Amino acid sequence: MSELDSPPSHPTSRLPSSSWDTTSQADAVFLELQTRQGREDPYSRYTRLRELAPVHVSRYGVTVLTRYEDCARALRSPDLQVEDAAWMDLNEPDWRRSPTNVVMGESLLHRNPPDHTRLRKLVSGSFTPRRVRELAPRIEALVAAELDMMADAGSDGGPVDVHDLMAFPLPVSVIGALLGVPESDWSWLRGPTAAISVVFDLFAFEEAYERSDRAIRELAPYLTDLIEQRRKSPQDDMISALISVRDRDGGLTEDELLQTVMLLFIAGFETTVNLITNGVMALLRHPEQRAALLADPTLAEAAVEEVLRYDAPVQGTMRHAIRDTRIGGVPVPEGSRVVAFLGAANRDPGQFTHPDRFDIRREGPKATSFGGGIHYCLGASLARLEAAIALPALITRFPRLALHGEAELRPIFNLRGYSRLPVTLG
After folding, report:
1. Rounded distance, CA 351 to CA 47, Å?
2. Structure confidence at residue 285 (pLDDT)
3. How far apart are CA 391 and CA 382, in angstroms?
């Protein structure tokens, strides 16, 4: 069975080959995004979707958005919400049979106000601009150590993997230390967290949920034990702080505590790993932009913003309409699902001149890559800081950095990044 034939989590089916009106063409392009070719090059397909129907009411049960303005509106609209436990109880009554659905469906990621407001307030203090800035010296030291390891690994002139030696260990080290996860366990945690992260995909297949369920059954007891250790011996970390809130005033239930810790660890590094690998790849493929950053490291923050726009680490997000509304002049009835393709919004020619060009001196609106509205990514400033330190440090240390062979994209659509990025250091 091919990927296109397999049922994704939000079921679709093949188009009848005899139908080629504008709507069916848009549906065909939408389905292409679920294939390997679509994952490798979603951007040309976004362009085609935008040309055919920028607000596309698919026959497969979703309204698809590809323009910047429409996506930005959807992310902030009070008429659209994330699919929370109440929605799933009504529309997918068997959802609680899956540990993955329970953890994700009841976590901060899938809560609406007032629960979302309560939970976000409890964890947002660790991600204030001041707290994030205070992490800069630690991040700089971690990057320097990782570059030393890369230099040692590549001392014979052979290839080294940017993903394994910098892009993955850096954000895992940062979020692990923030939460209070022992460093000795970071390597082991890579397996279960990788399995769980796949279900963030808009087009996750049943097999992905089965693997994630097994991983959660493995990870939950580990984190439960860690929480109990911190309850007995508090430390200066987020887990201890969340336990204090839970035990002092009931701000969290015990299940919410576990789900929050699990979500913060997984989501706390996944996007950043992708941001760094996508940034390295963009700089390798655009030597003139790499030279500009090498000549002027103060362009680091602008370079990160351009990476977020040009090759978004998160390609899309889902909402559902809680009442009849309109987007881009198109009616969206109550109960409809809406997919905002953030990667498409970031290359909307209505907002960005030459949108397919990578330009670290670009001016214009912010990319939508971290979402928007009340669900704007909590860790966005931390991810930006890590990438803004790592990217110029890498090319400064290794100015003759070059791609070696083929890089490997992650085998999922929504979390876009490289699982293997071999380079020679020169």
Report:
1. 13
2. 97
3. 14
Average pLDDT over residues 348-377: 96
> In the predicted model, what is the mean pLDDT of residues 398-403?
97
Dihedral sign, CA of 209, 226, 241, 370?
A: negative
Instruction: Find out whether 321 and 333 touch, Cβ atoms under 8 Å.
Output: yes
Query: Taking the alpha carbons of 316, 320, 325, 331 in that order, is the dihedral positive or negative?
Result: positive
DSSP strand pairing (422-424 vs 337-341): unpaired
pLDDT for res 51: 95
Residue 128, both tokens: 């204030």
Confidence of residue 13 (pLDDT cuts 50, 70, 90): very low
Take residue 138 and report the two structure tokens written for it: 């630690």
Task: Tell whether the torsion through CA atoms of 229, 233, 237 and 240 is positive or negative.
Answer: positive
> Can you give the pLDDT at residue 342?
97
Instruction: Choose the weakest-confidence range: 49-53, 196-200, 350-354, 414-418.
Output: 196-200
3-state class percentages of the chain: helix first, strand second, coil last, to nearest 5: 60, 10, 30
Q: What is the pTM of this model?
A: 0.91
Measure CA 281 to chain center: 17
Q: How far is CA 246 from CA 204, 372, 373, in A?
A: 33, 28, 27
DSSP secondary structure letters along 188-242: HHHHHHHHHHGGGSTT-BHHHHHHHHHHHHHHHHHHHHHHHHHHHS--SSHHHHH
Q: Which ranges of 286-425 would DSSP assign to H, the alpha helix? A: 287-295, 300-310, 342-345, 380-397
| CA end-to-end span of the chain | 44
Res 17 pLDDT > 60: no
- CA–CA gap between residue 159 and residue 266 (Å, rounded): 28
